[in-house]
Each structure stands twice: as structure tokens, then as C-alpha cells.
Design brief:
Elements: H1 2-27, E1 28-33, H2 37-49, E2 56-62, H3 64-70, E3 78-85, H4 86-94, E4 107-113, E5 119-124, H5 126-131, H6 135-151
Antiparallel strand pairs: 1-5, 2-3, 3-4, 4-5
Helix pairs in contact: 2-6
Length: 182
């Protein structure tokens, strides 16, 4: 009996260790970009704007590295491209059970440089995240995940678009416009 209990307990511990070790790899995806941070962010923005027919709008461009740099901390560049589609957000915001998911809005694409000198794009695995919250959310987030894949297409044959330095907005005195966020 002790052997069975010990084996069962060891199995649970192993599953927990594996889940913690690999969960980040399931929840987030990282892609190398052939361009620098600002050009990659500009291309992501242009790709988002190309999906306006699906309700996508740019919400903001954030630079979280700037605060660290202002404090005298040397960090590599990071830009956060934020976008939202009311086609996807509205059904979730209408329902009281899914309104908590507003914490995931807007959709954020991270563009950053690593020590290897290369630029990377980071995304949340929206499809997998949606599956955690039931079939309605899963179906919406599956569509978001498909669109996200289009956001990160880096076509070197196209000229570099300008970076849109849009400040966060959407509400009480923000620098953007009320329709800029979800």
C-alpha cells in the first residue's frame, strides 16, 4: 500500500514539475524577426491595420524599457504593440461570466531584442488560452489566434511602413481616443 501511495505521489509531483517547466512554452510563442525592433513593430502595426475588416484597431504602442532606462538601468529595447477587435471583444464583454477576460484586452504583441542581437516577436497562445474558459471563449480566441499569425508575417519584399507612435488611450483623460481601446 505504501508503494502504491508513494508511486501515486511521485507521479503527481512529476506532473507538477513538468507543467511548471514547460507551461511558458505552451502559453507563449516566440518568433525571430529579420528586422530591427522598430521596423518589426511597424510591420506588426501595418499587419494589424490590414485586418481592419475583422474589427482590428491599434490601441497603443508602449515602451516598457524606457522606464527602466530613465531609472538608469540598462535594458535592451522592448516595444509592445497593442490592438483590439470589437468583433471579438464585444461578445466577451457583454457576458458577465466572461467579462473578467477583459484583463487580456487589448491583444499585445511584444517586439524585443535579446543578447544575441536579434529581434524577436512574442505572442500569447490565444487559442490555448481560450480553451481554458469553455467553448464560447475557445471559438472566439481560436479566431484571434488565426489573426495573430497574420500580425507577425514579416514580408521583406514589402517596404518598411512608418512606426505609429500611438499613445495608450481609451478613457478618462488618456492621450489616445476613446475608440482606440477595447
Amino acid at each position: 500500500m505504501i508503494k502504491i501511495f508513494s508511486g501515486f505521489f511521485a507521479g503527481i509531483v512529476l506532473v507538477i514539475v513538468i507543467a511548471f517547466k514547460f507551461a511558458g512554452g505552451f502559453m507563449f510563442s516566440e518568433y525571430a524577426s529579420p528586422f530591427g525592433v522598430e521596423e518589426t513593430a511597424a510591420r506588426v502595426q501595418a499587419n494589424i491595420q490590414a485586418l481592419e475588416k475583422r474589427g482590428w484597431k491599434l490601441s497603443a504602442l508602449r515602451n516598457p524599457a524606457r522606464a527602466a532606462q530613465v531609472s538608469g538601468i540598462n535594458v535592451l529595447p522592448v516595444l509592445l504593440v497593442e490592438a483590439c477587435s470589437t468583433d471579438y471583444s464585444a461578445p466577451l464583454l457583454k457576458e458577465m461570466e466572461t467579462r473578467i477576460l477583459s484583463i487580456l484586452m487589448p491583444c499585445t504583441i511584444s517586439v524585443y531584442k535579446k543578447d544575441d542581437g536579434k529581434t524577436y516577436i512574442g505572442t500569447m497562445n490565444s487559442g490555448l488560452m481560450g480553451k481554458l474558459f469553455g467553448s464560447k471563449v475557445a471559438s472566439i480566441m481560436t479566431e484571434v489566434a488565426k489573426d495573430q499569425q497574420q500580425f507577425i508575417v514579416m514580408d521583406p519584399s514589402k517596404p518598411a511602413p512608418p512606426l505609429i507612435r500611438k499613445r495608450p488611450g481609451g478613457g478618462s483623460g488618456g492621450a489616445g481616443t476613446p475608440e482606440s481601446g477595447c
